[in-house]
Specification:
single chain; about 775 residues; alpha/beta; Nucleotidyltransferase, domain 5; 5 domains; 5-stranded mixed sheet; 24 helices; 20 strands; about 15% strand; flat; Integrase_cat-core
Length: about 775
């Protein structure tokens, strides 16, 4: 291999080693080249730099690069906010080894930020003094050298964490304590961290707690990364308040303190926390002004002196009197009186079915019966043992009663079957419990809810006494039903049982079946509420939600224009008329105003386009020319006769549309297959057909009489009220005739005609005879 991999961690050292080896191996052949290589190496730098950190590999020491990126004249004048921030942030200290010096820069940035100046404004005079002091300390940091190796051997060691806080900052520092021989210990700084206090004022005890939490997190992170075993952890603080809090239940404090104590409790133990005097706490160096003699011999790097001593010479633990700190929760004493639940049956609130509750109660009674023989046999055993001490060895062994049995059909164990007596007894106990909780145990007959009922106590149950006691062939439960309160849970379970047993029937059916045995107060409302809560009834009796209706077209809302400005047309029929001695077909043409809902009737002799246009011209001559006309699309007449469908299709031809355009009419067709969009005129066609069906039936009047009947049907439809009268004293309702003729009046009949006039030769008489049922 003649090359090294670019970017590999070992590449620089491998290349340097090969160069030196070649210089030594070929010195006798190339002395000048060897001297040049060796001279170049000696003149080279003896340190490595990484992100501002310096490693002096010959002495295996670490240092800091503290050359700010600001202009060179920044120290000769007052710097700006931007220049101060750049200078402070240019020093990289990931391990917090220089925290006592660098925390001054962070506090300076906070002070400048609090002043509110802009980025390119010069700092205030008070901040300039702090700035100059920080730059002097930064120059002192330039010559600092710290030993990189902290462990002298690979044996286990101890972690000691110190925390402290002040109004300026809070900090922590972690030391590695390792035994070198029998009586000496080596203490080395592993890491430190300092933070400035928040802008919002915080009490000193809370800041001390924040420092303790910061130290806990840092010690846990270091312990996770170390490959050397940590045999002991010790946490030191000079705050008696924090020590008291840590040894107290976090739930007794307010949220701020409680949350931080809970996190500390997860990573540490109360017995690991110790008290240290403030004068011996190295973390205090990062919360005050930067020390003037900050070098490798400072206490910050070597820890307090007592860590190098034996444990017997350490500061003695002190006991502190717990005093109120203002962080405790307010304690409330609540006196509660609890009575023992003497319920002999299972709690009915825990059951959703009457059958399950009944069977569970029956199982309890069955268990009591199985336990009772054992108790009786124990009493007999004591009596027999007093008479004959040897009776246990001579007696025959009796089978032991059990809850479960084995049968040839079921070789595995099965539950004992429930007998009807068990179920009846369980039902009686449940009903008696319901009555006792609803009406009281003492004198339930006098309860206010039973004041209007004639109740009597029979066999421990309240029953309603009626007037059919003498009736024969009637069940006793029907004569005197059991009284229950409908609000009790047992009564509700009973009603739910009957509701499901009778296939979720109507209320009358369920009520009739319940009253065969029970008289439940408020039965009707409870049955209705049970049906409302029933999930089956909700699913299978629910009605689909109607889709939302669309907005009305603009043609339906033109109230300021004359009637029939926007109209719709439709055909209906055919109707047979008598012409001479033959019968011919005629069709009704209905025009309706989309705004006033008035109708106009015309009679068409054929289904041609010309006949329809003539009807349109007659309507326009009497009502005015429409601007917009709507009509069906031919597919709406599926099932109608072929000729009518052909007429609508002819109306869509270019001839009709073009001639309508000449009349200044805009013709619109509804979409195919959407008859619901033509409901505005389809409903009026039905009204006209209903009116004509009363008069025509199977008769064939003359054409002139049919035309008269159509106009009278038009008058009847136009006399319908558009809105209902809300008050009886209102004179009349609003009708389409109010928009057409200004009033709503019926057409009086001229004379009195009989049914015989239908076959008369006078059109007047036959017309009146036909129209009399219509006007009535």
């Amino acid at each position: 291999m003649t090359s090294v991999i670019f970017g590999a961690a070992c590449s620089p050292s491998a290349a340097s080693f090969v160069t030196n080896k070649n210089a030594k191996d070929y010195r006798h052949r190339y002395p000048e080249a060897a001297r040049a290589i060796e001279g170049d190496i000696e003149l080279g730098s003896k340190e490595e730099k990484t992100l501002g950190l310096r490693w002096f590999y010959e002495s295996d020491e670490m240092g800091f690069r503290t050359h700010p990126r600001d202009p060179k004249d920044v120290e000769a004048r007052t710097p700006t906010k931007r220049e101060v921030t750049s200078a402070v942030m240019s020093t990289f200290d990931p391990m917090g080894l220089a925290s006592p010096v660098l925390i001054e820069g962070k506090a300076l940035i906070q002070s400048i930020w609090r002043s509110g100046i802009d980025w390119d404004d010069v700092i205030l005079e008070k901040d300039e003094v702090a700035w100059k002091r920080y730059m002097e300390n930064l120059r002192m940091l330039q010559g600092l050298r710290i030993a990189r190796c902290f462990s002298c051997c690979s044996t286990e060691g101890e972690l000691h964490t110190f925390t402290d806080a002040s109004e300026k900052a809070y900090a922590c520092t972690v030391y590695w304590r390792q035994k070198t021989d029998e009586s000496t210990y080596r203490v080395t700084l592993l890491a430190g961290k300092a933070r400035v206090t928040p802008l919002r004022p915080v009490s000193i005890p809370r800041l001390e707690l924040q420092a303790a939490l910061l130290g806990t997190r840092m010690a846990q992170a270091i312990a996770d990364e170390l490959d050397i075993a940590v045999c002991r952890r010790t946490y030191w603080t000079d705050s008696s308040t924090v020590l008291t809090w840590i040894k107290t239940d976090p739930r007794t404090f307010k949220p701020f303190v409680a949350h931080r104590l809970a996190e500390i409790e997860e990573s540490t133990k109360p017995q690991e926390w110790r008290w240290v005097p403030g004068s011996q706490n190295p973390a205090d160096d990062a919360t005050r002004e930067a020390p003037a003699d900050f070098d490798h011999t400072h206490r910050w790097f070597n820890g307090p002196e007592f860590l190098t001593w034996d444990e017997s010479r350490r500061p003695k633990p002190r006991t502190f009197k717990q005093e109120p700190s203002g962080e405790e929760k307010e304690a409330f004493l609540v006196a509660t009186a609890r009575t023992a639940d003497a319920r002999p049956t299972p709690d009915p609130h825990r059951f959703s079915s009457w059958v399950k509750l009944l069977r569970a109660t029956a199982r309890v009674l069955q268990f009591i019966e199985l336990c009772r023989p054992r108790k009786e046999s124990a009493c007999v055993s004591r009596q027999l043992e007093q008479q004959d001490p040897t009776w246990r060895t001579t007696r025959a062994k009796q089978p032991r009663s059990t809850w479960k049995i084995r049968t040839p059909e079921a070789p595995t164990e099965a539950w004992l079957p429930l007998d009807p007596p068990h179920l009846k007894k369980a039902e009686k106990i449940l009903l008696r419990s319901s009555q006792g909780e609803s009406f009281g145990e003492k004198d339930p007959e006098r309860h206010p809810k039973l004041r209007r009922l004639d109740v009597v106590m029979e066999d421990g149950l309240l029953r309603l006494r009626g007037r059919i006691d003498a009736a024969q062939y009637i069940d006793a439960g029907c004569k005197r039903p059991i009284v229950l309160d409908g609000k009790h849970v047992i009564a509700r379970l009973l009603i739910k049982h009957y509701h499901e047993a009778f296939q979720h029937g109507n209320h009358a059916t369920v009520m009739n079946e319940v009253r065969q045995r029970y008289w439940i107060l408020g039965l009707r409302s409870i049955i209705r509420a049970t049906a409302v809560r029933c999930q089956w009834c909700k699913v299978y009796r629910s009605t689909p939600r109607l889709p939302p209706t669309g907005d009305l077209p603009i043609e339906r809302l033109r109230h300021g224009e004359p009637p029939f400005t926007c109209a719709a047309v439709d055909y209906f029929g055919p109707m047979t008329v008598t012409v001479g001695r033959r019968h011919e077909k005629r069709w009704g043409v209905l025009f309706t105003c989309l705004t006033t809902r008035a109708v106009h009737m015309e009679l068409a002799a054929s289904l041609t386009a010309d006949s329809m246009l003539l009807a349109l011209r007659r309507m326009a001559a009497r009502r005015g020319m429409p601007k917009v006309i709507y009509s069906d699309n031919g597919t709406n007449f599926v099932g109608a006769n072929k000729e009518l469908k052909q007429a609508i299709e002819n109306a869509r031809e270019a001839d009709v549309v073009s001639r309508a355009a000449q009349m200044n009419i805009k013709w619109k067709f509804i979409p195919p297959g959407a008859p619901n969009m033509g409901g505005a005129w389809e409903r009026l066609v039905r009204s006209v057909k209903t009116a004509l069906a009363v008069t025509l039936k199977e008769r064939h009047p003359r054409e002139e009489v049919l035309h008269t009947l159509l106009l009278e049907a038009e008058h009847v439809v136009n006399s319908r009220p558009l809105v209902a009268r809300e008050e009886s004293w209102e004179s009349e309702a609003l009708t389409p005739n109010h928009f057409l003729i200004g009033r709503s009046c019926g057409a009086p009949s001229i004379g009195d005609y009989r049914d015989e006039d239908l076959t008369g030769k006078k059109n007047m008489e036959s017309g009146e005879a036909y129209g009399r049922p219509l006007l009535e």
